[in-house]
Predict the structure.
Amino acid sequence: MRTTSQNIDHDIFFKKVNRLLLVILLLMVACFFTWSENVLITRAIKVVGRMGVLFGSYLVYKKIIAYGAIDNLKWHNVPSIFMYVLYLLLGFASFLWTTNIGVSALQWFMTTQTLVFCYFFIKCLYLLDKFFPEHKIRLFNLLGNVCFVLITIFVVGMWVNPDVFFRYTHGGEEARLGGYMMNPNELGMLAGVGVAGLLFDLKRDHKKAWTIFKLLVLFYGLYATGSRSSLIGALLIIGFHVKQSSNTKLKILIITGMIVVAPVAIYKVVLKDGDSSRIEEVLSMTGRLPFWTALINEGLPREPMLGFGFMRIDYKEYFQSTHTYPGKMTHNTFLQVLMNLGFVGITIVIFQMIFTFKGISKEHSEKRLMLLSMLIPLIINSLTEFGIFGESNYGILFYQLIILYISFKQNDILTPAQKLYLKKRRPDLVY
């Protein structure tokens, strides 16, 4: 039986829940950063902080129920979440053969903890949609604002304390935003996800001037990271929005901005001012191509079926071929799975992604566009960095949010006890 809300003002409740969801998502993403060079402080933030935020997401979930909602949601697009859980179960089983159980266990528990956080966070949004259909809390707005706040901290920090917020590469010749706190390519991906989220605020005319300012900050931060892949991802997101949009004025505004910005950004970030030696580096993907070749030719044949264990790529701490640099991770999330869990693991992951894309394709247009926009920077980052199946990072967090956001559907059937509960808590409901 369908429930509908009468004209009762819940604005104070919505604002409070929106603030709480924004803060806990912000803290969750921030917990992936290395905010201190002190190992103990970093571990405390990553472990204690993330567990605290997980508990916070559960409390918000309970708060929404206590205010007047029933968790009678049904599972939806089951193959996607089932294959993801199967991937985690295989990772857990790999403790039996991993080359370093301490590393494997830590990475597995952090990834699983993130999934539990996402479970309650996404349920909060579904319960709001079901029992408070007039609310204006949106996942894309929360993600966009979280990314904006974090990128702003780094943009301000690079002017206030460049030694901390910049990472110097190529013998100190190139300064890239990120410092010791975050890999510049990962930070660029965060900016890309922020762009994907805030473009929807621009599309719905939500505080247009303020949204444009936030987008400019994100693009400036992305440019400062020097991340080629993230820049390409951001441009693809914009192109994707232009293609899907029916708003002529918005199309003209975005295309004009791209015509002005894209050539300079590509020349500076991707082509590195036309430096021939740097262009050669681009063609080899900064040494990644020979490293991947060595992994497949030398590493994979050693443990082809089940791999070296969750987040392990060799018997030793580093994989090193005669002609490549030593690497602790593959810089490609799909190769990472292949080395971690072998052909069995990569088969599970491929089917998991197929079912995820299939589930997204069945969603309504705005939700489908939002999820595909989020996936663009995540997939591109996955080809060159940790990615959505790599070592614990906020790319995994965003991907798990996507999986769970297509894994529930509303249930119109209420039991007599649930109806009685709603009569007491929500007299404004008609059902």
Remarks:
- The CA atoms of residues 26 and 146 lie 5 Å apart.
- Residues 138-275 form one domain.
- The two ends are 7 Å apart (CA to CA).
- The chain has a mean pLDDT of 87.
